[in-house]
Amino acid sequence: MNVPYRVLSLLRDNGPLSRAQLADRLEVPRPRLLAELDRLVATGKVLDAGPAASRGGRRSTLVRLDPGLRFAAVDLGASSIDIEITNGGLDPVASYSETADIRSGPVGILGRVSELLHKLGAKGHYTRLDAIGIGLPGPVSFRDGVPVSPPIMVGWNRYPVRDTLAREHDCPVVVDNDVNVMALGERHSGVARSVEHLLFVKIGSGIGSGMQHHGRIYRGAEGCAGDIGHIQVETEGPVCTCGNTGCLEAYFGGASLARDATAAALTGRSPALAARLAERGALTAVDVAECATGGDTAAIGLIRTGGQRVGQVLATLVSFMNPSMIVIGGGLAGLGYLLLAEIRSVVYKRSLPLATGNLPIVMSELGPRAGVVGAALLASELAYGGE
Amino acid sequence: MNVPYRVLSLLRDNGPLSRAQLADRLEVPRPRLLAELDRLVATGKVLDAGPAASRGGRRSTLVRLDPGLRFAAVDLGASSIDIEITNGGLDPVASYSETADIRSGPVGILGRVSELLHKLGAKGHYTRLDAIGIGLPGPVSFRDGVPVSPPIMVGWNRYPVRDTLAREHDCPVVVDNDVNVMALGERHSGVARSVEHLLFVKIGSGIGSGMQHHGRIYRGAEGCAGDIGHIQVETEGPVCTCGNTGCLEAYFGGASLARDATAAALTGRSPALAARLAERGALTAVDVAECATGGDTAAIGLIRTGGQRVGQVLATLVSFMNPSMIVIGGGLAGLGYLLLAEIRSVVYKRSLPLATGNLPIVMSELGPRAGVVGAALLASELAYGGE
Prior knowledge:
CATH superfamily of the largest domain in chain A: ATPase, nucleotide binding domain
Order of helices and strands of chain A: HEHHEEEEEHEEEHEHEEEHHHHHEHHEH
Number of helices of chain A: 14
Strand content of chain A: 15-25%
Distance between the termini of chain A: 12 Å
Shape of chain A: globular
Oligomer: homodimer
Helix content of chain A: 40-55%
Strand order of the largest sheet of chain A: 6-5-4-7-10
Structural class of chain A: alpha/beta
Largest sheet of chain A: 5 strands, mixed
Number of domains of chain A: 3
């Protein structure tokens, strides 16, 4: 057993614990535990934190993570940079977000990420970083720390993301796919806590998914497992950005929804969307959500149809994977109950009854924070010596 | 480390080994290994087998599995019972097959299985069984050793298959889904040896799949993972035996192929199939295969269309799971290269390029033996103390 990692992750997830509590939880002989704790204190990861409440016998002393531990969590989206600085227990001590076009390339984007991190350091949020975790919107070779043939990340193929950031910030760095990272966050401190077989579905500009089995990310042979946006839902269908026809993303996701909403506005099917288009010059998923809430039939129809398409793909995946829970996250999760109801209706109707009997399909609890929470968790796993 | 299990499985997979070779392979201190071997000899699982060839130093003695070890492997299909008796190294010492309708229920079928096993014992193929492994054509609760809501196994729901056979034969019994068992066989001694992420697809009367990650079967939350026969391939489509419309099995598999072949014969589209129907009164997949080989256009068309439907579902699963290899097995694998070519063509065209770049799609090597090989392996894992 990896005792140092177990100690550090217990302190991360539970806060300060007494030596006696740690010995109980880890089932390690007390002398070995005390020796390991001494080593962790010597490396500056763990501190003594005074006497614990008495349990009747000899007083035990509390240990806690060093309050100076700092992780940087970075979530890169198609059009956004989100950063959180956390302490060793993953509580946020600072956060920052801005828009940025991932297609402007790795030099510009990673340069900006480093600049933002240095600024947060200069403001006193950290003196040094213990690790950085970063999620990218595309397939990632986890082992090499590089994106691999990422469809929307023009110019990023095999760019050394991990090594670039590690050199710049002189700390270990871990890189993963953004949906895997969100799934990790949701399982660690969101709605999917301790779920055995988790299927996390991100519906944002595009659509992706991440799987976790007993808390371990499933990546597949080439690291691209979960890439469901280009699954074909109709043999004949609209042309997708990928060049194929009838992909899920050609039917739904932020980009397709904006396209369909604009069409509904221009053809007079939706007076509400037409008014917004005239006012703002362009439509997004937020407009569709608000018009649907306002009762606009066409907007409601767009969400329903999208939910059915997503449900159609998920019904297939549920029969195949038999997950314990499905969590829907990403920007379009904001479309709310109407979307969820449609997805549920198709999955519960179409999948194997045995696979849906005990299957919750729920919204993400962490919302837009899922990515940074997962990235911080990955960073801590690396720093604490997890696998 | 579970040393006894490691020793027994090494001897199973490699044949006799010297004590020195075992110590090398297991990286266990020699005194501990020798003590474990003594215990295995005392329990009658392992024998001394004389001196090993010299490696220059002190002569080491060979150890081997006791030649009297016996496993029974049972593969129940929709319409068949296949049995193999193996030694401890999984080499067959006797085998027997007969037709049987699974719908005649658990009492009749398991009674017949026990009768056949006792007969094989009476013929001297074993004196006692060390374990039985059995595959069933439906979802199985592996933990409880019972089928769970199996669609084609009328009357079998939660029947205590494991406990019935264990009582009757006074040995441990392990029960699993037939496709999981075939996948195990193929990975242990077929075409998929040591493949990391295996997707095994069985196309028989119905269609199912089994996954293995690093040699471990993936079962999902309720044990029904891989049940792909009722995935919807068309929203509007033929009615399936399950009551839904457009399921994969409503398009392809032995039952659908017989139906479509009969229609092709009766409507005059296939003179070759019509001639066979007139001669035999009914058509099966074998007739379609033979007429296709003979150049019959309609028969070729049936296999092509079926391959495309299977390919369509597999393309989705490949994007999602990103397997290292796909193996096609089951009775209809006999349709041969034409079927395989269609499946490959659709998967390679439709799935994510990163997921198909290094993806072999191949025929089962063990063919109809895959099930009993896997069932024997499961039995041995149980008897040797694997997880």
